[in-house]
Specification:
Blueprint: H1 4-7, E1 15-18, H2 22-31, H3 37-40, E2 43-46, H4 49-55, H5 75-91
Parallel strand pairs: 1-2
Length: 92
């Protein structure tokens, strides 16, 4: 399994995990026994908003996570657009 990284290069730089429950913490505690130090350094469990603000600029972070962004994703509108695009492709 040593050559897997050669054939499938890893692109993940860092992942921030926020507001996870005890089940995820338990699973991660078990999984970390099989992870290398390099891989463990890529996972950051965030308990405080200040930790997240150290990595992400406040204007890019949603207000509920301690940032200043008021962005709202309109899921229904995007689904509607996606269906319209798909219908156009079928007609062609």
């Amino acid at each position: 399994m040593g050559n897997v990284g050669y054939y499938y290069p890893e692109n993940l730089c860092k992942i921030y995990v926020n507001n996870v429950g005890w089940v995820v913490n338990l699973m991660f505690a078990f999984a970390r026994t099989f992870m290398t130090k390099r891989m463990l350094d890529k996972y950051v469990v965030v308990h405080y908003k200040e930790t997240l603000l150290e990595a992400v600029e406040a204007d890019q972070l949603l207000e509920i996570l301690g940032g200043e962004s008021t962005f709202v994703f309109d899921f229904d509108e995007e689904v509607k657009k996606d269906k319209e695009r798909a219908a156009k492709r079928v007609k062609q």
